[in-house]
Structure formats: C-alpha cells, structure tokens
Amino acid sequence: MRDPQGFALDTLAIHAGQSPDPSSGAVMTPIVLASTFVQDGPGVHQGYDYSRAGNPTRTALEGCLAALEGAKHGITFGSGCAATTAVLLTLKTGDHVVCGDDVYGGTFRIFDKVMKQWGLSSTSLDMSDPAKVAAAIKPNTRLIWLETPSNPMLKIFDIAAIADVAKKAGVMLAVDNTFATPMLQRPLDLGATMSVHSTTKYLNGHSDVVGGAVLTSDDALAERLHFLQKSVGGVPSPFDCYMVLRGLKTLGVRMRQHVEGARGIAEFLSKHEQVKRVYYPGLAGHPGHAVGARQMRGPGGMISFELDGGLQAASAFLKALEIFACAESLGGVESLAEHPAIMTHASLPAEARAALGIGDGLIRLSVGIEDASDLRKDLETGFAAARAR
Length: 389
Ligand code: P1T
Prior knowledge:
Layout: H1 9-15, H2 56-69, E1 73-77, H3 80-88, E2 96-100, H4 105-115, E3 121-125, H5 130-136, E4 141-147, H6 159-169, E5 172-176, H7 181-184, E6 194-198, E7 212-216, H8 219-232, H9 238-248, H10 251-270, E8 275-279, H11 289-295, E9 302-307, H12 310-320, E10 325-326, E11 336-338, H13 350-356, E12 362-366, H14 372-388
Helix pairs in contact: 1-2, 2-9, 3-4, 5-6, 12-14
The structure holds ligand P1T.
Residues 79-81, 104, 106-107, 147, 151, 176, 178, 198, 200, 210, 212, 328-330, 344 line the site of ligand P1T.
C-alpha cells in the first residue's frame, strides 16, 4: 500500500506497510532472516546494512502498526517491556514521571526496580480526575504514563483531558494501548504523544509471539527511539514480526468478537450470586463507562471480577475451568483466566495491591473468541467448584 491515508482500519490491518515482494511478486511479506546485507561499496546499500539497525520484515510491521494508530512512525521491540524501557530511556537521570496507579506489574517493576536506580523518579496516582494529574506534575516531570483500560482493574482515564494537561505542562503523554488496540481506541487522535503496545497480546492475537511497539508522530522522539532500538538492541526477530503482521490481518474481526463475547460474560457475571463486583467498562455502572464510550469504539475483551470466598474459592474456580486456561497474558483467540495478586501483579507491594482492590478473590479474564455459551458453561463449572470447596 503506497499511501495509507483515507483507508479504514480493517483495510489498513491487511495492507498497510506491505506491498508485493518486487523480486518475486509474493503477496505475503517475506521473512527476511538475513542478519546482514550486501553493500556495493562501503556505505552504499539498499537501505539495510545490519538487521539490528533495520530489517525489511520489521519495516513492514512498523508501517502497518503506525498506519493503524494514525502515527507517522513505528518502532518495534522484542517485548512490551522492552518498548516501555525504550520510552523511559528517552528520559535522563533526575527526570520525573507521573504514572497511572493501575499498570501491568512488569511495567511497575521497570519503574521501581530498574529505572529508579538510574535516578528516574515517579508518582503513581488514579488519573480519573485530570486535575489531580496536573497537580502531580513537578518542574522535572517529563512524561505522563498511563494504561486505559488499565491492567487489571479496567480503569478508564480520559486521554484527551490528560493530553491537555500534558500539553500545558510541556510533557509527553504515553498511553499503553495494549488492552484496547487501535481498533477500539487511537490515543494519538486524542492528543497523546505516543501509543505503546505489548504486541504479544491482541495485535498478534494467537499467544505465540512476545513483542512490543511504540507509535508516534513526533519526529524527534521517533528518531531517538530508532536510535535506542538500534543501540540498546531489544529488537524483535523477523519471524516474530511476520507473525504479528499475519495476526494483524484479522485484528478487526477478532476485536469485534472479543467485545461481543466479553459484553455477554460481563452481564452474566454481574448477575451471579457468587460475584461481589465486576470490573468491565462496558457495564453502565462502571465509573469510567461514559468516558470509555466516548473515547473507545468498544469496551474490549478484558474483565476482572471479585469472587466470593477469597483465595480458596478463586483457586478452586481457576483449577476447574476447562476452556479458560489458567495462565498469564491476554488477547489471544483462546480464553485465559488468571489471579492477578499471585500471578501478573505479584511485583506490586501488598499495600499497593490492596489499595487498588487486587485482592485474593480477584480474577481476570481474557475473553477469547470461542462460542459464548461454551464459555459461560465453563465459568459455571468454575463457580460450582468454588461453591464445593
Ligand atoms: O509481556 P510483554 O510483551 O513484555 O508486555 C508487557 C506488558 C505491557 N503492557 C501491558 C498493558 C501488559 O499487559 C503487558 C504484559 N501483560 C501480561 C503479561 C499480563 O498477563 O497482564
């Protein structure tokens, strides 16, 4: 596709960044495994010299992701955590980050256990009130970082309002868009400086790749991120880039199915007597429902809920499931269920988990695209096991 302007997301997901291979006419982007590229003379090459610096399969993926997010530039990494680290490496010792209180445990760990020792400080807060975000900005703040919907409490933060705060303060806004994907939410359209992804999740969609990406239209930031990609070297393999490109082709249909399935399951859970509370932005009672409806094209496929009976009940529930696999991660075609306090968010201090509501009874579901009634039956099996424990 020569110019991605003016095409719908479903079309971009299949064609952006890609064109038939000129050497063979192959319709699918080739997986270029070469680590190095011939030069006609020193410094004279066809745009690629060494695969850490650039690779044609990676370029295709970066083009496709950038088009989907409405960004000028795409920079991909070997994991979502590598993408997050690259963003933080654009800052320097003494800088400060204002961070959403509810983020993936591994993201918190990068802030707390890696970047802190290099002199980067951060303040975590619930960003439901953008005025509180403005109040948390210090003279040395350089970045606001948030997830929406957030992991695992499915909080919704107003990207446009927080982008306004960022703009007034002259700081960057990074939105981790992993849970929504560009099919449901485009942070750059709402004023964010960059959209960050774990491509491991919905973008690849089949639980067989670990990867990450940053999408931005800021030329200077993109140049720095490309430099860091090459210099720090956390690059994705050409094979993994191909796999994500392949997964992206069905992103639109998958996301519509994830949303439809999750809506039904959230309704079902909200009426279940063993469920104390459901966290799903598609439910009218969710505190972020209105903002979510405004900034998203659908509430997504992730649900968390509080099961009655604490850890024993949660454990019996998770063990009894047959279709939902008890596993970390999310966003694949297959349904997953997990226990955030023990699994994905174990690196958060116990007090922080308690303050967020990540307790012993909290279960997070990644609703896959299996038959909805089979999924419901599976959850009923889990509830029966929790009752019988
Ligand atoms: O696992 P990795 O590709 O490095 O991505 C990290 C990451 C970044 N951002 C969000 C919102 C994430 O959810 C993740 C990874 N999350 C899980 C593995 C999980 O089960 O929540």
